[in-house]
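Let us begin with a simple case.
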Amino acid sequence: MSPSVHSEVAHHRARVAAFSRKDSDPEKANKARRELKAAILGRDIRAFVSTAPLPTPEQLAELRALLAPTDGTKVPPSAVDAA
């Protein structure tokens, strides 16, 4: 795994710590926690994808459904979908 992936997660952990202090803005702390979770998920997905065989179209559809927002938020199409 590349050092930049580890440093990205470390960066977000530090932000969570900074924004979790007693006198900090709770909204900023919550945003930092969401960003940390996304960084960890991204790191883990990259690690898995780098060793896994290519998924079938059906498997890709299942994975997209798992990652789809459940709150009605629109997600822009990926570059893969545009190709």
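The second case is a distinct protein. As before, the sequence precedes its structure tokens.
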Amino acid sequence: MTALALGAVVLVGSCGTQTATRQGPPSPSNAVDSEAQAIRKETYAFYDSWTGGRSGQTAAEVLIVHDTNGPLSECLNRAGYDVTWERGISGTTFMDGLNASRWLRDPLSRRYTWMAVMDAFSARVEDRQMHDKRVPDDVVDSCLRSSRPIGDEGVLKTSLPPVQQRLMADWDARITEAVASVAGDREGYETCVLDGDLPEAFAEPEDTEELLDAIDAAMPPVEEVPLGDEEPSPNWQKWLDVEEQLLEVEWTCAEPVYSDAMRQLPRVIDEFAADHEDEIAELVAHWQRVKSDARALGWTEDRPFLSSTLEGWVNPETEYPPALDEVAAP
């Protein structure tokens, strides 16, 4: 949970991960096993069923922002300023159910571009939704004293309850073990990437941390990252070329084991579901309640941001920011 002071108005938004715009049709240089990609889709569906998925996490954000910004908004309204609590809704939380293993990175997605657009999206939302200089500072300060922030404990109770935290840790451990049985450990993947034909812009990184720093430095600043139909800058196209070479290196390392690694997942799902049947049922009920409570505030799955002004940046078919798997690899 973060409190952002922008202009004269302070509104609170829950921590979220925004997603990116599609860069083109998926056409990786190496064919990807369709059965493996079908397993990926099924795995995400199972994982989302008890972690809330994109719609559940957005509904949770609506509740969190309302509980935090509701009293502030009411106070500002009484003072004669039309500032709605919905301005604090910044996007959706993305939980990658396969993030525990580097070998399982989706070869059809531009994950680094996704991270760049995530940062740009957050910056735009922050500027557009929460920038309001109409309200004098003394009025804001007075209303802030009367607000009742939900606090970190309240945020986690809604968006990441304790039972879910425990299950996510067990899930990650099982995924890691299952994949390692056919692909090896994470260090093997990272060594392979570091030894690959990396872009010249990355020099010769000594370790993964140096590589990540080089990737971050190569990304254009947020103001040059296009969202929706915005025209890309020359720097952005240069970045896409660099990323394409990086993705080729990563896929060269993962491709020999990717399909076998993905085929371990159905067994993991079956065993996990059997071992945690009661806890999963508890979490499914939790997310149903979260969505029901959010609907009482005007939220719906096809109108996730209520009155937020995100036109032009979200997927027009879903009203959500496009998902990670919509950021296509070269």
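The chain is about 55% helix and 5% strand. The longest strand covers residues 2-6.
Keep these points in mind for the review questions at the end of the chapter.
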